[in-house]
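Supplementary notes (optional reading)

For those who missed the lab, this is the record we used. Protein: ABC transporter substrate-binding protein. Length: 410 residues.
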Amino acid sequence: MTFATGKGRTRLAAVGLVAGLAALTLTAVHARAQAPLKIGVLGDFSSVYSDIGGQGNLEATKLAVEEFGGTMFGKPIEVISADPQNKADIAASISRKWYENEAVDMIIDMPTSATALAGMEMSKQFEKIMIVTDAASSDITGKSCSPYTLHWTYDTYGNAHTVGQAIVKNGGDSWFFITADYLFGHSIERDTGDVVRASGGKVVGSARHPLNNQDFSSFLLQAQASKAKIIGMANGGGDTINTIKQAAEFGIVAGGQNLAGIVMFISDIHSLGLKLAQGLIITEAYYWDLNDRTRAFGKKFFDKMKRMPTMNQAATYSATLHYLNAVKAAGTRDTKPVLAKMRETPVRDAFTDNGFVREDGRMVHSMFLFEVKKPEESKGPWDYYKVLAEVPGDQVFRPLKDGNCPYVKQ
């Protein structure tokens, strides 16, 4: 019998440690292969953006899973959810826990730009997929882009170019912004201001308000005093609704100024009512009454939620379904092959019939320019829009070469 001594013992210990680590790795890989595919919906279920996404995004995710068949690799697909309270640190903490400890394969939604960017850092760290369907900052596929994040619905650059350009062309050449004081609002003001100036208009000022604000009187008085033809609402959800309602109380539109809803949703129009919202020019990627595909999804969603889907909710359904089809086609849940399939496969569903995923993560698709109907033009609840134009994706979204995404080969 021989005994290892000195360096021999050290070598044996090292070999044992390596073998132990290899066994643990193989066990973890095997366990992950046996676990159900898991999707996490990280959304606003209780605050200013809950109508836009929230429970509707969760139901849209479940509708996509149901339509797909409910299982992947012989096991039921799991869907979990949480509310980050629109706080970046909470979004980062939940994303870390889901990716690291709860075997979540993909996170979807992300209600604000700040929560999206925080979650994206976790997505990069754990090399897991994140699909942003609610947050809007164009930085998500620009300077802050990630190789593991896709941006699905809309962004501040695209909305600014469709709405801003149309309004300036129609004579709205002087602007004052009422801006939500965080990344989303700043991005809208920046991107729309660039469009206004490039189209020959001017920005005469802005006022910034906190998220989920209730009293807009001081900001509206500044806008009124500016004498700008257009008051651009660089905010969203409940903040936009409150801005419009209080602008009516101040008689701003009656006094000759007009409001521009740069990021608005059908849920906002429903909350406002056509009497207040009529005549607004807005852009959306989806409207339930566009064609047979949009109507079919709208009906399924309405049966669940008793309201028509916003474009974010339709996009969450679309992105989930596209992801599931990519996992099936790749034959694995591993991130890189799934992302490759998502990029090489066109997006054709109830949300869009002309979408594709670009190298920087931007899902490129048409956007629609709508005018909100007058009350007498509407045939009933949710019949709110007249189509002014369909704008092709290559005219909507920022060119790939201009985004400064560090992961894109120039």
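If you only remember one thing from this example: DSSP finds 14 helices and 16 strands in the chain.
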